[in-house]
Amino acid sequence: MSYIHDVYSSMVDDDVLRYVNYRNIEQSDKEFIRNDFWDLEFVTSPIATYFPGNDLLKARLKTFSYTTEEGISEMTSTIRGFKVRQSTQSGTTSGTLTLEYTDREDQAVSLFHEDWKQKIGSRRTRFAYRKLDTICDIKATWFNTPRTPIREVYFYSCQLTNNPNPWTVSSEDAGNDNGEISMELAFEHHEVKFLLSDATLNM
Which CATH number goes with the domain that contains 53? Predict the structure, then answer.
């Protein structure tokens, strides 16, 4: 009589690849990380400027992106023919944030952008408001499928760094180029919060 060999019985108890099986890998209680469920809001708005409100800005914000100046460098020392390394934090916690809007005929986003620029330095009088009156804090949030927040990034002391785009004309069919607005900001510090994790981290 022949027997069917049970492959599982051949696995040793200390098999380091024992985790390689469907039940471990499919992890039905853990979803993939999505990049299409997100929100961005002005936690504070620039005090001196016209502000159209978060609801309007959220409805017209197409996308955003940010970069930081943080990095990892290293210290090294060669001792008797052996090179010893130690990683260290480099750069700063500052960076840039870019907001991409599609404005409408009421020009609410355009006015916000233009007024913010004018409060930093008036085109007509060169008068400038204090920094405290022209900075803001912004929060970005990412969600899972049931719309539970899973990560937050806070940007502190955001300051406008680019001029509004001049309007253009066209002899072709109507387009919306004059409604496409890119608002570029510089922030002095940012923090990251991991919300839906085995260990909640604030960094």
Answer: 2.30.110
3-state secondary structure 28-88: CCCCCCCCCCEEEEEEECCCCCCCCCHHHHHHHEEEEEEEEEEEEEEEEEEECCEEEEEEE
Q: Phi, psi (5° rounding) for residue 198?
A: -60, -25
pLDDT digits (tens, 9 = 90+) for 65-113: 999 998 899 999 999 999 999 999 888 999 999 999 999 999 999 999 9
Q: Which of 37, 72, 42, 38 is nearest to 55 (CA)?
A: 42
Whether residue 97 contacts residue 68, with contact meaning beta carbons closer than 8 Å, is answered with no
* Residue 155 confidence (pLDDT): 98
Structure tokens, 12:
């040793």
- How crowded is residue 57: how many other Cβ atoms within 10 Å of its Cβ? 20
Distance separating alpha carbons of residues 100 and 26, to the nearest angstrom: 36
At a CB cut-off of 8 Å and minimum separation 6, what does 102 contact?
Answer: 60, 62, 176, 179, 180, 181
Residues spanned by the domain of 155: 31-164+177-202
